[in-house]
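User: Predict the structure for this protein chain, please.
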Amino acid sequence: MKESNEETLAATVEILSKKLDDIINKQKDIENELQRNNKIIMQRMNKAQEYNEIDDMRCKVLNNQLNDLLKRIIEIDEKLY
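Assistant: Here is the predicted structure, written as structure tokens:
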């Protein structure tokens, strides 16, 4: 009877060990996927930041051009009237 219990216990321990190994492997896979996703997200965030910086520069240039245009229009309007 004792040997049967030990065999059952050994089989149970082996099953648990295999399941734990599976869980550990799945966790490693998830961790690797998270690292890849994090890297991709960081790259996209950097691109978005670069785009925003370029957009800000465009806005500044356009604002300056519009201000110059407005000044010229005001000057012309003053000369005409």
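The CA atoms of residues 59 and 65 lie 10 Å apart.
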